[in-house]
Amino acid sequence: MKSMGEASSVLVTGGAGFIGSHLVERLLGMGRRVVVVDSFCDFYDPAIKRRNVELVSADANYTLREGDIRDQAFMEDVFAAGRFDCVVHLAAMAGVRPSIEQPRLYSDVNINGTLNVLECCRLFGRPRLVFASSSSVYGVNTKVPFSEDDRVERAISPYAATKLANEVMCHTYHHLYGFPVVCLRFFTVYGPRQRPEMAIAKFIRLIHAGDEVPMFGDGTTRRDYTYCDDIVDGIVASMSLDSGCEVINLGNSRTVELRELIGLIASALGNKARIKRLPLQPGDVPITYADIGKARRLLGYDPGYPIERGIERAVRWYLDQLCR
Questions:
Q1: Is 177 a residue of the active site?
Q2: For residue 15, what are the CA distances in angstroms to 40, 82, 85, 256?
């Protein structure tokens, strides 16, 4: 990975969450000053995010600003006080299926909240912006692996549509105001502290307990699963990328069938998975598969966690938590 140059301070929105907390730990370990904005919303148990914060709260270089990215006055105060030269914007309502049930909420948080972040970047020094997008923008793309040059006008969930709209707005602000922007399309991130409703965290919990595991469809849907440490590598490298406006895939560039994933988790736990077959869900895509050639070229990105190793680490972390 490329080294990151000196910076006054880094803002991480959503920094108490799954990916954000790992990134914050990495940045603090590099000696960076980090300001986190998080609303601790109840999309999942806020106590989980509070525990994430406790891991770093004693670090003198860490500051937490609790508030909502939709609150323009709050965000302007954060930017005015922080004098950031880099903003990593991770805060969002996440998840395909819940976005179908609550499209207005997803639009409000993801689009209006991101607009506030962009406006603050414009008003306060025009820092470099790294925006967390999603592989969901590719929709039901039949060309694999997914490339940044592929057409992405056919989103199939409100979540995906908000992320695509955010990418367009990021490009617009770069064009108008000149600050550098990198939009990173994450491919199914997993690992320690993963949100509890996400598949791998949920499957680990259910298989360990001996409960039924919901399997949507016949188990042949495929995902490109990316371990959280690899994603953090890509984010950190993006923070020093000398470019104007880029869209870059961050994935593992390997697809894994759902039934294979369940088998890997069961094996790592030493348990047998009890499968409950269910219909495919609206908004789900049959495959995600990242072409990471651009990330390798521009970021020196080289994912080090194949699914087998990543699952072992995720299971070990889960079992360690049970012993505490």
A1: no
A2: 10, 15, 17, 29
Q: 110: closest CA among 44, 67, 159, 60?
A: 159
**In this structure, which amino acid lies at residue 261?**
L
Structurally, at CATH architecture level, domain 10-186+229-251+290-303 sits in: 3-Layer(aba) Sandwich (3.40)
The 3-class SS string of the chain reads CCCCCCCCCEEEECCCCHHHHHHHHHHHHCCCCEEEEECCCCCCCHHHHHHHHHCCCCCCCEEEEECCCCCHHHHHHHHHHHCCCEEEECCCCCCHHHHHHCHHHHHHHHHHHHHHHHHHHHHCCCCEEEEEEEHHHHCCCCCCCECCCCCCCCCCCHHHHHHHHHHHHHHHHHHHHCCCEEEEEECCEECCCCCCCCHHHHHHHHHHHCCEEEEECCCCCEECCEEHHHHHHHHHHHCCCCCCEEEEEECCCCCEEHHHHHHHHHHHHCCCCEEEEECCCCCCCCECCECCHHHHHHHCCCCCCCHHHHHHHHHHHHHHHHCC
Catalytic residue among 106, 138, 159, 227: 159
Q: Given a cut of 60, is residue 7 above it in pLDDT?
A: no
CA atoms within 13 A on the CB side of 50: 6
Q: What is the pLDDT of residues 128-161, one digit of tens each?
A: 999 999 999 999 888 999 999 999 988 999 999 9
What would the pLDDT profile of 97-110 be if each residue is shown by its tens digit? 999 999 999 999 99
Sign of CA dihedral 271, 276, 277, 280: negative
Spans of all domains in the chain: 10-186+229-251+290-303
* Distance in angstroms (rounded) separating the CA atoms of residues 3 and 157: 37
Task: Assess whether pLDDT exceeds 70 at residue 1.
Answer: no
Q: Give every CB contact of residue 82 below 8 A, 6+ residues apart in sequence.
A: 9, 11, 35
